[in-house]
Design a protein that fits this description.
By secondary structure, this protein is of the alpha+beta class. It is built from four helices and eight strands; from the N terminus they run ααββββαββββα. A six-stranded antiparallel sheet has the order 1-2-6-7-8-5. The chain has a two-stranded antiparallel ribbon with strand order 3-4. Helix 1 packs across helix 3.
Length: about 160
């Protein structure tokens, strides 16, 4: 699969998630096994109004979404893959006034589970705000309730 359809599929999946719409999360880059999303800095993500610091929940949303949508990038066909486990280790606070990027890659795909890892960063990926590992359950392309979402994400070609 070329990178353009992967990017388009990731974008359509992201657009289907209301919380991500509200936060303004957008696709920054997408490849066959990885994804980078951008969480723009805004008053909606501020956790401490006195300092302008980014709320940890916004970073958790970014990273769960990044890991989850990276599963869409690695699979040849759309499948519902809910989060089974997500661990985030925060290294240091995000700086106020700067966008936050989330990178995730799928490093192992089994018939039942997809394993992901990644990090959140601002200016430099070598200076991560947080590290994440996540596991996602493969429900199969015919999973209950997944057909409408699949059609929406794949643009009706499901």
């Amino acid at each position: 699969m070329s990178e353009k359809p992967i990017l388009e599929r990731a974008q359509r999946f992201l657009e289907a998630l209301r919380q991500c719409q509200v936060l303004g999360i957008r696709v920054h880059a997408a490849g066959p096994s990885d994804l980078t999303l951008c969480l723009p800095y805004s008053p909606r993500i501020v956790g401490n109004p006195e300092t302008g610091g980014v709320h940890g929940g916004a970073i958790t949303t970014l990273m769960d979404t990044t890991c989850g949508i990276s599963t869409v990038c690695v699979l040849p066909e759309f499948e519902i893959c809910p989060t089974l486990d997500l661990r985030i280790d925060y290294m240091h606070p995000a700086e106020p006034g700067k966008d936050v990027f989330g990178f995730a890659e799928c490093y192992r795909v089994t018939p039942n589970i997809i394993f992901t890892r990644g990090y959140a960063y601002q200016d430099d990926p070598a200076q991560p705000i947080a590290h994440v590992v996540g596991t996602f359950m493969r429900m199969g392309k015919g999973a209950q309730g997944g057909r409408q979402l699949q059609q929406r994400i794949q643009g009706g070609d499901a």
